[in-house]
Automatic annotation (TrEMBL):
Keywords: Methyltransferase, Signal, Transferase. This is Class I SAM-dependent methyltransferase. It comes from Hymenobacter endophyticus. CDD domains: AdoMet_MTases. InterPro entries: Methyltransf_12 (IPR013217), SAM-dependent_MTases_sf (IPR029063). One of its GO terms (molecular function) is methyltransferase activity. Residues 109-204 form the Methyltransferase type domain. Residues 36-54 have a biased composition (Basic and acidic residues). Pfam families: Methyltransf_12. It is an enzyme of class 2 (transferase). The keyword Transit peptide does not apply.
Amino acid sequence: MPFSSKAIVWLSAAGLFAGSFACTQPLSESSAAQLTEERRQTLPDTSGYERRPPQDLNGIGKYYLGRQIAHVMGHEGASWLERSGRQQEEGTDILLRELRLKPTDVVADIGAGTGFFTFRISPLVPQGKVLAVDIQPEMLTALRETKDRLRASNVVPLQGTTSNPNLPAKGVDVVLLVDAYHEFDYPREMMRAIRNSLTPTGRVALVEYRAEDSKVPIKRIHKMSVAQARREMAAIGLRLTDSIASLPQQHLLIFRRQ
């Protein structure tokens, strides 16, 4: 997503403010360190990003560690998430079984959409929670309606942003990303925030269509290879601890803190 002119103006103003402050009052060593840390936390981390014309028109003109980022599927495509053949095509029951959830787990479903996985996970964690995160208000409205209809009291819809899922720090046991990560506008910032949300034994379950398999009937930009996934997760301090090959078309990759 291109930086807006407002963002550029804000950065310029921040720089001018810092400069004028330095001219009128010398910063102590501790104050300078604090200001540097505050700016580091506020400004987006652009490491690994580049902008160039899209190789695939289904993607945006932004690349992360060599991978073109795909367009986000809008709420208009919600029916595809609930299609009748999804369970068989993707082996969703197998996926849920492979997650080996405990009844007390706090699970974050990132890019929850209509809640296809959210409401299947809910009864598996009766003493836990399912944090259903999405950035689209229309998806969250659908989630809340289904939550009320099913009386799923342990489901918590959360409004995320393109760079932060707004998860509790060190409070999530399992983060589930199903066919969502490759569409993140800011994958580095999102995954860094997700990493910070993990409990000491927490894990990330990354599910993406296999780029290594040409027989998987999905456009290349909506696939990921194991090598690319490992590279991107390693960049923010996550290591691959398990690669589960039981799904019909997708990788199920488990990552933990390094």
